[in-house]
UniProtKB/TrEMBL annotation:
Name of this protein: Glycosyl hydrolase family 16
Signal peptide residues on this chain, from the entry's feature table: 1-25
Key words of the record: Hydrolase, Signal
Example GO BP: carbohydrate metabolic process
CDD domains, per the entry: GH16_laminarinase_like
Domain GH16: from-to ranges: 103-382
Keyword Hydrolase: yes
Organism taxonomic ancestry: Bacteria, Bacillati, Bacillota, Clostridia, Halanaerobiales
Gene3D superfamilies the UniProt entry points to: 2.60.120.200
Homology family: Belongs to the glycosyl hydrolase 16 family.
Gene Ontology molecular functions: hydrolase activity, hydrolyzing O-glycosyl compounds
Amino acid sequence: MTKNRKKLFLLLILISMLLILTACNGGSSDSISSHTLTVQVDYNQSSPLMIELYDEEEMVANEEGDSAQFEVKNGTYTLKVYNDSTAKSKSVVINGSDHTVAVSFLDPTIPEDDWEPGAGWNLDWSDEFNDGDFDTNIWTRQRLMTPFNNELESYTGERSTAYEENGYMVLKATYDGGAYDQQGNYTSARVISNPGGQDGDSGADGKTFKYGKIAARIKLPGGKGIWPAFWMLGDNISETGGSTSWPQCGEIDILESGAKGDPNYGQGTVHGTVHRDPGTESNTAGYNEPVPAGSYTLADGELFKDDFHVFAIEWDQEEIIWKLDGIEFGRKDISSDIENEFHKNFYVLFNIAVGGHFTDTPDETTGFPQYMYIDWIRHYTK
């Protein structure tokens, strides 16, 4: 065989090997190119924090601190975040693009609680969220993929959106990518205490209230386009298995925050409102008209996301009174015959809405994930 033929033969072998390797890699450079995995940890403890990345059983990268960036190829990895007392792990899939992972790793120490209900109020019921077990006999993660009010989130009902951790019930809202003003690009939680759960037929006991003091100690989320709420609906509403439409069922908003037009995107202002049967009093248009009871803005530019506050109503046959940390900020008379929807059983809701007619649209300044921390909810009677 001549030298030229030998060279040609070797060249053909080399080309064949390259073709085989390309076929094994699916004919795409994505599987061998690198992508950036960004890890962001919500962390407020003093001990050092470690972030480690594993490919199967082998650690391939690690960083100390509350954020890290790793260059990785396509595949499934395990992310481990830990300090000297707690560890968390989660699976991460890289598939042709950069990826960001957020991890909540908050100090389990709950700030001091010195709130008192006031003279004459006796504790009737509470959920203190101290056992680490999300009580599905009381609370339901409501599934509502296309919410009302032009909101942008989807309430998927997944366990990851609402859970108990470190003495709180935690609600979580995430931005899933895409246009900021597109419905469905956010995942969030809406938790209800409706007897029978989602459709009224789950067998869950739930919890309803009629009169008394209903109070909850909450640290709210906050940012442009974030609309958290602690509120109540008449348990006869058709949405969850009843026979009465909204707003004829009645609605009591113990707190709403994030209102469009309020200072700091509404993060330091709370509103109390009722919604009732249309066509009553001056509302003859035949559709819902909210009846504001009052609002309260924190002093010196403080924001509700920076600390816990107690949001409460005092409700009897004559009126509903709204209070923030024991300070009255709203009052609504319900003694007339046209307010009869407020003399029936109501269930509680906690949720984080994103966007919608009440608030702004999120943008790049809105941090995600967003969390609502509920320390406790209590019902008092006299």
